[in-house]
Amino acid sequence: MLATATTFTIEGVRGREILVEVDVRRGLPAFTVVGLPDATVREARERVRAALLNSALDFPMQRVTANLAPAYLRKHGATFDLALAVALLAASGQVPPEALPGLAVCGELSLGGAIRPVRGALAMAFAAAAAGCARIVVPPDNAGEAALAGIDALPVPDLTSLVDVLHGRLAPEPARPPAFAPREGAGLPDLADVRGQEDARRALEIAAAGGHSLLMVGPPGAGKTMLARRLPGILPPPSLEEAVEITNVHSVAGLVNGGLVSERPFRAPHHSISAPGLVGGGAHPRPGEVSLAHGGVLFLDELAEFSRVALEALRQPLEDGRSVVTRGQRTIEFPARAMLAAACNPCPCGRGAERCVCGPMAVARYRRRLSGPLLDRIDLTCELGPVAPGALAGPGAGECSAAVRERVVSARERQADRLRGSGALANAGIAAGMLRGAARPAPDAERRLAEGHALLGLSARGHARVLRVARTIADLEGADRIEATHVDEALGYRHAPAIGEAA
What we know:
Helix content is 37%, strand content 16%. By secondary structure, the chain is α/β, with parallel strands linked by helices. The strands form five sheets. Strands 11-12-15-10-16 form a five-stranded parallel beta sheet. The model has no long low-confidence stretch (mean pLDDT 90).
């Protein structure tokens, strides 16, 4: 007898429909799985056999052939366990086959028959809804996130309960999606802790308001890392749609289990990270750090210490907001719309020109670690000096994150009204074709931008990035048009001292 169950696998951050076909017929007892399974999928035969027997169900002593279609797609992971078991039960007459159409199943089986959680349940639920399935059976730990897809997510704890569901003897209540309660800076480090560094604080506010990338250059202990870690606290809270996108990426990576990510992520990988770890990849491609920071902040501390290969791999995700990985004649895309915040020293010793003990060759090698094309993709570069003793000993704290966040949210609201329907969420994402119309520079601002372009030798990309930053500065001030003062400030952050030069 032949039976088919529907399940899903993960490609990138999307679910891919897999039909599990099981044929049971007379012959020598054997259990064969075909359809390009990897070792984990082949091992499912033993898990399914033990789960059935330990759940007081029969395992047919006949020839069992399972096909995972489409057969040309390589299958990996333990998410096929439950579908193999359900199709086998239907093919051997232990559950009614007519109960399977319109039902998707996903889950890993324990030897005792318990259904264990899997990665990417939200992506599978979205794919199930798109495939026309009315219900999806998921492990209880994954039920909340699967319900976010708008499909009936049935939390079923074990194989025995699932058999009762298929026979109609049990009707579990569909899970409810977790409540969305965005955290507006609660519990995050506060900008009021930062003393001095007014220029860097201003750059941080502009970066947050427009979604711009930021590089801070300064000696050790100047507050670069401290400032970067306070960037999420001044960003606007994510919308429900953004929260679901972030949750989907983190679910695929195995970093969330049943909940909804309600705050913007902050990722700070170590400088020894590889290129696949940063932008995604591996034998079975998974999201890299830039994708795990989607909708939030990717902080690269000691930027010049990262490998050249890893940094160059970042260029395309920074430009396009997505990371494209090609493995085994397959192209997989991960979302990567993250703000880049980076920090580095002015030279290897970090002391700057006046007290620097590095030789010219050492400084030259240090500067070559960051390529011109990469630096050209950074919107704001700001120089930090040592904090004055008076600032550290002063009685008052700086402006708090809540006050800065109010200005950032107001600027983002202006951008949302202006960019509605364009696909861009902030000024940093304005497409080149619509930049002039969205920026609306005044004639004197145009002249100042042309003068700055000639003086600084800007590239076309640099010219556009200055214009986007100026548009953000204007939004922070509530101005409809870009004025010359806005362009001057934007050019100032474009014309920071190069790494290795005098601080």
